Each structure stands twice: as structure tokens, then as C-alpha cells.
């Protein structure tokens, strides 16, 4: 009987001590909560990057002193107060920046709990603190980790083949100051496989045909000429003057001011004079 009473006494003492411990810790929990603003910050966004638009809501569970909430935002989070007032139409009556923090005045006829919506832009990467407080200096903070956006990899550019070096050419200016390319110096003897005498070569200023003589050229019924360009029906040869009339590319002036098409070499023929009464003849074109 004595043992039972002893056990009951010890059990009673244990229960009393347990109750004291629970009461003490409950008071500590109430004290911690009393030091913190009774708000909840929510956002659907989890991954945040510099340049993103960040939206979140602040749920206020109970009335605030003076219906005022203060918000400390990092300078890297930019907002438009007018946009937030419009976003919270009928809930936020005033919003002003004072000493680096935003003072938000709630409407007088407010039924709690409420949600204050925020929208802004994150302009940089890093860890940023958002703090909310009231007139009693009770606070609630959140920490945001904003990452730097990865730049997309640029596709590799194919290597450009090396351009062959162009031979230097003499550059001349025409009468209208347009850039023209002069004729480079060249040893024409390299093309003289027949060993002909090129000492009689002379520079010409007009596109005149050159008569071909010797061998078979002297035995034909026509005289043959080497000519650069093309002759037409209007081109003729005058027997008495022994010259071609100036038409088209025939006798065209060769200088920088006279623009000519690319002239290809070809052979033309003139029928030999059969009668003195015939003064001229058409030019035959071998093309």
C-alpha cells in the first residue's frame, strides 16, 4: 500500500513539472509571435532572374495601427506607386516614399484579412531583403535570390577562306573623279612565240582596225582587219580615203572620259575595190 502511494506521488510531481515546462514554452512561443508582424508574403514565382517582372501578395491577417503598413524595398526592385494603387483598387488609398521606405495607407473600411498586391521589376542579380512593418515597429522580412540570366550561346561562325592576294594595279582618276584602274605594265614579248618584230608597236588613241597582211591575206578577194568590238549595217569603208566611217565602236576615242563596253577582239572584212566608180562598201563582220 505504501509503495502504491509513493508511485502516485511521484507521478503527480512528474505531471506538475511537465505542465510547468509546457506553460513556459508556450509563453516563449507567444512572445516570439508578438515580436513579428502578422503578415504572410506569397508569390507564384520561384526562379527569379535579373530583368524579370516580380509579382507578390502580402496577406495582412489583422488590423494595423492607423491602417498603415511600411515597406522597405531594395533599390534593385523598381515599382510604380500609381500602378500599385490601381492594382489594389479600393484597398490602398495612398502610397508615398518617405525616408527610403514606402508608406501605404489602407482604406478605412477594410475587412481583414486582406491581400496587398505588388508588381515591379528586378533590375539586377543578388540577394535582396524585403521588409514589412507597422506603427508598432513589428516586422516581417523575406529574402529573394535573384540570378543572372544566362546569355544564349552564339553559333560558331564558319571560318572564311583566305582571299588570294590581288596584284597591285595603278589607280587613276577620270575627269569626273571616278576611280579607274590603269593598265599594268606587261612584257608583251612573253606572248611572242613566233619571234615577230614588235619594235613597230605604237599606242593608239582611237579604236581603229589593224590590217592583216602577208601570206593568204594578200590573195583573198577581201582585205581583213583585226578589230575590237562589233560592226553593224551602218559601218562602211571609203576606198578613196582608205578609212572606215566613225560609227558605234569604230574609231571610238580611247580615254578615261569615254565609257565603252568591254570590247572583244574579232576579224572584219572589206571587199577589195573592183571599179573606180564604187566609192565605198559595207563591212563584213566575222562573228
Please give a quick description of this structure.
By secondary structure, the protein is an alpha+beta fold.
Protein described:
It is a single chain. With 287 residues, the protein is an alpha+beta fold. Among the domains are: 39-147, Immunoglobulin-like (Sandwich), CATH 2.60.40.740; 203-285, no CATH class. Helices cover 14% and strands 33% of the residues. The protein has two helices and 18 strands. It has helices at residues 2-34, 81-87, and strands at 39-42, 48-49, 53-60, 68-72, 77-78, 92-98, 101-106, 114-122, 126-133, 139-147, 171-173, 179-181, 210-212, 222-228, 236-238, 243-244, 265-271, 280-285. The strands form four sheets. A six-stranded mixed beta sheet has the order 2-10-9-4-7-6, covered by helices on one side.
CATH top-level class of the domain at 39-147: Mainly Beta
Which stretches are poorly predicted, pLDDT < 50 over at least 5 residues?
27-34
Judging by the overall fold, what is the CATH architecture of the domain at 39-147?
Sandwich
Mean pLDDT: 79
SSE ordering = HEEEEEHEEEEEEEEEEEEE
| Biggest β-sheet strands, sense, barrel | 6 strands, mixed
CATH topology of the domain at 39-147: Immunoglobulin-like
What portion of the residues fall into strands of 2 or more residues?
25-35%
How large, in whole angstroms, is the Cα Rg? Answer: 52 Å
> Terminal Cα separation, in Å?
144 Å
Q: Name the overall outline.
A: rod-shaped
Helix fraction bin: 10-25%
Strand order of the largest sheet: 2-10-9-4-7-6
**DSSP strand tally:** 18
> Structural class given helices, strands, pairing?
alpha+beta
The total of helices stands at 2
Amino acid at each position: 500500500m505504501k509503495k502504491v502511494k509513493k508511485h502516485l506521488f511521484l507521478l503527480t510531481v512528474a505531471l506538475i513539472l511537465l505542465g510547468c515546462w509546457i506553460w513556459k514554452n508556450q509563453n516563449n512561443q507567444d512572445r516570439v509571435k508578438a515580436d513579428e508582424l502578422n503578415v504572410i508574403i506569397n508569390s507564384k514565382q520561384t526562379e527569379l532572374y535579373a530583368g524579370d517582372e516580380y509579382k507578390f501578395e502580402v496577406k495582412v491577417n489583422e488590423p494595423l495601427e492607423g491602417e498603415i503598413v511600411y515597406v522597405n524595398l531594395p533599390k534593385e526592385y523598381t515599382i510604380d506607386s500609381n500602378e500599385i494603387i490601381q492594382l489594389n483598387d479600393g484597398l490602398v488609398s495612398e502610397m508615398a516614399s518617405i525616408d527610403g521606405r514606402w508608406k501605404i495607407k489602407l482604406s478605412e473600411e477594410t475587412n481583414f484579412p486582406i491581400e496587398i498586391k505588388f508588381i515591379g521589376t528586378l533590375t539586377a542579380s543578388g540577394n535582396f531583403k524585403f521588409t514589412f512593418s507597422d506603427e508598432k515597429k513589428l516586422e516581417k522580412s523575406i529574402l529573394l535570390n535573384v540570378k543572372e540570366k544566362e546569355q544564349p550561346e552564339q553559333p560558331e561562325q564558319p571560318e572564311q577562306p583566305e582571299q588570294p592576294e590581288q596584284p597591285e594595279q595603278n589607280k587613276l582618276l577620270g575627269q569626273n573623279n571616278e576611280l579607274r584602274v590603269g593598265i599594268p605594265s606587261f612584257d608583251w614579248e612573253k606572248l611572242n612565240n613566233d619571234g615577230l618584230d614588235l619594235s613597230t608597236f605604237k599606242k593608239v588613241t582611237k579604236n581603229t582596225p589593224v590590217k592583216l597582211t602577208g601570206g593568204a591575206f594578200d590573195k583573198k578577194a577581201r582585205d581583213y582587219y583585226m578589230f575590237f568590238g562589233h560592226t553593224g549595217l551602218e559601218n562602211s569603208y571609203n576606198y578613196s580615203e582608205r578609212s572606215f566611217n566613225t560609227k558605234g565602236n569604230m574609231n571610238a576615242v580611247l580615254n578615261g572620259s569615254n565609257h565603252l563596253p568591254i570590247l572583244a577582239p574579232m576579224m572584219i572584212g572589206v571587199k577589195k575595190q573592183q571599179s573606180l566608180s564604187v566609192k565605198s562598201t559595207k563591212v563584213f563582220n566575222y562573228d
